[in-house]
Design a protein that fits this description.
11 strands; 173 residues; alpha+beta; single chain; 3-stranded antiparallel sheet; 6-stranded antiparallel sheet
């Protein structure tokens, strides 16, 4: 059962199998504009925070070049399964694993629910003050607002559908 719909709450849930247990989480969509405070902290928007599995550790991840992903441990573990078959004699794969896993940081929140995006992540994503948080299904991405606006203004709905569904059907873009 890959997905289920809870008709009482009108939420779509993703099922992630991790270590022989299934984790259900709300499907995260939409965007929220907000800002870093004076100490470079943000609050994960409530619509996304409540969708993450309860009591599951969250991580900052450099999953894309110009944005910061926030993933729950179950999603991160599922994505990192690609490294299960890497052997030490595969130098390029070991370097890729070191690059990816070396750019993952556990997210911690203060007692008011604020978290500081580490400088490495802010700098790489060009985040200074204004941000946009985007629901990406099983995780969220935090973008510099200006970059998000620039990229999204170039991506039409028709092009987004062509890219997404062309990829799904094995067609070239």
């Amino acid at each position: 059962m890959p997905n289920r719909v809870d008709s009482g709450q009108k939420w779509i849930y993703n099922r992630i199998v991790h270590s022989q247990r299934a984790v259900f989480m709300k499907f995260m969509t939409g965007t929220v504009e907000h800002q870093l405070d004076g100490k470079n902290r943000i609050r994960i928007p409530a619509k996304f925070r409540s969708a993450f599995p309860e009591k599951e550790t969250l991580y900052f991840v450099r999953y894309n070049a110009d944005r910061v992903a926030v993933m729950p441990e179950s999603v991160l573990n599922a994505k990192m399964k690609v490294f299960d078959d890497i052997t030490p004699d595969d130098e390029e794969a070991m370097d890729a694993m070191a690059k990816i896993l070396g750019s993952v940081e556990e997210l911690s929140e203060d007692n008011q629910g604020r978290t500081m995006i580490p400088r490495y992540f802010r700098d790489a994503a060009g985040i200074e003050k204004d941000v946009v948080t985007v629901g990406m299904g099983t995780y969220i991405e935090i973008w510099a607002k200006q970059l998000h606006e620039e990229k999204m203004s170039k991506m039409t709905v028709q092009r987004a559908n062509a890219v997404a569904y062309g990829r799904k059907n094995g067609n070239e873009r």
